[in-house]
Amino acid sequence: MMIVVRSLLFNAAFYVSIIIQMIVFTPIYFLMPRKKAWMVPKNWALSNLWLQKLIVGTDYSIEGLENIPEGAYICAPKHQSFWDVFAFLPRLDDPVMILKRELMWIPLFGWYVAKMRMIPVDRGTRTKALRSITQGAKEAIAQGRQILIYPEGTRRPPGAPPQYKYGIAHIYAELGLPVVPIAHNAGLYWPRRKFRRYPGTIRCRVLPPIEAGLDKETFFKRLIEVTEAACDELLLEAARDENPPPMPPTAIQRLKELGFEPPRPSK
């Protein structure tokens, strides 16, 4: 019952915080130079992390921060939850996100995104979308920015079989940049399409960069292998906690494949 109450309180605080911060910081945000204006969304991200710890009891840890290079690179986090959309922003210098063009049409939010010169993509035509992404990314890296892209394109539940899109291999080859994979298990604590939030510690791991210059197939295979191996390790660590979060069916199945008998799913 307390999980439900805390989840409701956190969700309410999350949206109230967005509204208040937009009212307070919007004038500042649009008057500041673009790069300095990052302080507003980064502050929003940090406030979300603080609220989640205060209300729900969910903390987080990030290993491997020394693997983050300076300047331009491709940042490739695992995508399990809305949590990973904002949680890494404070750790990135000047990221540029690749997002659906339709998001640009949302009042105020779209204006925020436009200010940061993100890369909107029309997903209707794959070839046209890749061309648009590549062009926008080249302009961004010329300014030393980091390209933030989710290789699977959409949120996947913890333990689910990977479904990486080959587009990242194309972007990697075109840009000639190293790729920094990020593994985590946030989907156990902030599940997709659910309102419940669970206490515990979200574990994240920044992996060593995959060097530029590999052929597409070699790069694509390595990205999947290193990211999924790290995600498996983090899933096992969560399952071995004294009070593990509820495991979705995909996580239970994956744990069994890894030789671990997980706790029964909560009713």
UniProtKB/TrEMBL annotation:
Metabolic or biological pathway: Lipid metabolism
Family matches, as Pfam families? Acyltransferase
Q: Which GO terms describe its molecular function?
A: 1-acylglycerol-3-phosphate O-acyltransferase activity
Q: Where is the Phospholipid/glycerol acyltransferase domain?
A: 73-187
Bilayer-crossing residues are 12-32
What SMART domains is this protein classified in?
PlsC
The keyword Acyltransferase belongs to this UniProt entry's keyword annotation = yes
Q: Which InterPro entries match?
A: Plipid/glycerol_acylTrfase
Going by the UniProt record, its keywords in alphabetical order are: Acyltransferase, Membrane, Transferase, Transmembrane, Transmembrane helix
Query: What is one Gene Ontology biological process annotated in the Swiss-Prot or TrEMBL record?
Result: phosphatidic acid biosynthetic process
- What SUPFAM superfamilies does the record point to? Glycerol-3-phosphate (1)-acyltransferase (SSF69593)
By what name is this protein known?
A: 1-acyl-sn-glycerol-3-phosphate acyltransferase
Question: Mind giving the lineage of the organism this protein is from?
Answer: Bacteria, Pseudomonadati, Pseudomonadota, Alphaproteobacteria, Hyphomicrobiales
